[in-house]
């Protein structure tokens, strides 16, 4: 019979990875909670048009990477490629704009982009993100970035770099785009094929091109600063000052642009040298027109998303992969009566919060011992019909190899006491 395989770019998450996911999610919930964010979970499937309108029809994500299909009611839907669009839709649909104005949300979950899979680039990946909706304050930008670096520090990420840029307003960007077109057009032959295409469709994205031969041309292009008005410059200055006040280190990168069209003013990216070519660990920025373009009134917003798989790649590998579970118990049984008693004891221990296990298929003593060791249970109790009758049994500490004769009820009392540690 043919076996099924997972699709390219999709992963099973288990063992250390699953533990890593749970650990970073727990830290995220704590840190985001202290910054005043509340959890929101939006659907994985939305109308395709939501993403087209939010992210921009000409972006790579919308043009080439969305998993989209017609559902059974003939609605064109897409698996979400990112979290921001859904959160803004939910903010408006649930009237947060009318009832409270400012809303601070965080989310965790899978996102889908049909990109070419490679290390750190998946078709189903996970993001942890936050969005502050209904605020124009530059302090909200700084607070959001500070929330991100606090989370990264708390989770144990080291050596990351925060890059910051000011993309200005849509109006300022229009002038900037024209200037870029004028600059790049006569130098078209020096650009890679992708950039030639970008020149027609989305000239802005040329600035982000990583192809070696394009870099010298890009680095001589007019920087955006010359196109920004005083209000945009002041906003950015306040963001920088507030980041300094919060003690966040960052580097300004005048050529950093983002792959999604909704950004205005402040944008940022976190890179990490451990990630290779896909070095963006997290990214975000301000998006002052998205709420309006999805049907709300004009209101600013800012947020970020961290790629969880990339984050786990940057963290030091778990040291204790083969460590024993502290104060855990495995009962090896011999005979039907001992099996039944062990089942009762394991149930009682578990009910009281003690990690306990037994082999339900009751194989040979030797294979039960091997199983207990493989699962890394610290204490093994050997229970046969004799032990059951006398109440005396052996307790083996698998960590030290030490074996001791003990009373069964004494062991159970010791196990039950560990739950309070
Ligand atoms: P993004 O830069 O497209 O922004 O994605 C954010 C992060 O998701 C990236 O820095 C990366 O770590 C991770 N990521 C993206 N694509 C993949 C992939 N194919 N495989 C693995 N990881 C990936 C956004 O999605 C915006 N919604 C962020 C935001 C929130 N802006 C404002 N609010």
How is the secondary structure organized here?
Elements: H1 15-34, E1 38-39, E2 45-47, H2 48-55, H3 60-65, E3 68-70, E4 76-79, H4 84-93, H5 96-99, E5 103-112, E6 124-133, H6 138-155, E7 161-166, H7 170-184, H8 193-201, H9 215-219, H10 230-246, E8 251-252, E9 264-271, E10 280-286, H11 290-293, E11 301-307, H12 308-314, E12 325-334, H13 336-351, E13 356-358, H14 365-374, E14 377-384, H15 385-390, E15 392-397, E16 403-407, H16 408-418
Helix pairs in contact: 1-6, 6-10
Histidyl-adenosine monophosphate binds at residues 82-84, 113, 115, 121-122, 125, 127, 129, 131, 259, 280-285, 303-305, 307, 309-310.
Which class do the helix and strand fractions yield? alpha+beta
Coarse shape: elongated
> Runs with pLDDT <50, length 5+?
none
- What about the largest sheet? 8 strands, mixed
Number of strands: 16
Computed CA radius of gyration, to the nearest angstrom? 28 Å
Mean pLDDT: 93
Please, how many helices? 16
């Amino acid at each position: 019979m043919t076996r099924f395989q997972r699709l390219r770019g999709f992963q099973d998450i288990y063992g250390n990875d699953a533990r890593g996911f749970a650990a970073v999610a727990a830290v995220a919930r704590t840190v985001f909670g202290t910054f005043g964010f509340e959890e929101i979970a939006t659907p994985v499937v939305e109308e395709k048009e939501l993403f087209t309108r939010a992210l921009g029809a000409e972006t790579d994500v919308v043009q080439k990477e969305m998993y989209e299909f017609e559902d059974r009611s003939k609605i064109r839907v897409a698996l979400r490629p990112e979290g921001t669009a859904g959160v803004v839709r939910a903010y408006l649909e649930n009237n947060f704009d009318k009832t409270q104005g400012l809303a601070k949300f965080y989310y965790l979950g899978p996102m889908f982009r049909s990109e070419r899979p490679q290390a750190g680039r998946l078709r189903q990946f996970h993001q942890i993100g936050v969005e502050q909706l209904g605020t124009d304050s530059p302090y909200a930008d700084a607070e959001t970035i500070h929330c991100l670096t606090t989370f990264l520090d708390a989770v144990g990420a080291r050596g990351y770099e925060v890059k910051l840029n000011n993309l200005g307003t849509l109006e300022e960007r229009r002038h900037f785009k024209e200037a870029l077109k004028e600059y790049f057009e006569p130098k078209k032959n020096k650009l890679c094929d992708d950039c030639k295409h970008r020149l027609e469709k989305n000239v802005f994205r040329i600035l982000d091109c990583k192809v070696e031969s394009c870099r010298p041309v890009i680095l001589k292009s007019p920087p955006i600063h010359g196109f920004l008005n005083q209000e945009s410059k002041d906003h950015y200055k306040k963001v920088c000052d507030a980041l300094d006040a919060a003690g966040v280190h960052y580097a300004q990168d005048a050529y950093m642009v983002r792959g999604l069209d909704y950004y205005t003013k402040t944008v940022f990216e976190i890179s990490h040298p451990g990630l290779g070519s896909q070095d963006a660990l997290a990214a975000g920025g301000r998006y002052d027109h998205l709420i309006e373009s999805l049907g709300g009134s004009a209101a600013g917003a800012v947020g970020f998303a961290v790629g969880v798989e990339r984050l786990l790649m940057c963290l030091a590998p778990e040291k204790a992969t083969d460590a024993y579970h502290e104060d855990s118990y495995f009962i090896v049984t011999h005979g039907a009566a001992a099996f039944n008693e062990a089942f009762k004891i394991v149930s009682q221990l578990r009910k009281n919060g003690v990690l306990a296990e037994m082999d339900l298929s009751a194989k040979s003593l030797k294979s039960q011992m091997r199983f207990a060791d493989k699962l890394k249970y610290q204490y093994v109790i050997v229970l046969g019909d004799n032990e059951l009758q006398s109440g005396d049994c052996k307790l083996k500490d698998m960590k030290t190899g030490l074996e001791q004769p003990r009373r069964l009820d004494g062991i159970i009392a010791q196990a039950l006491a560990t739950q309070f540690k």
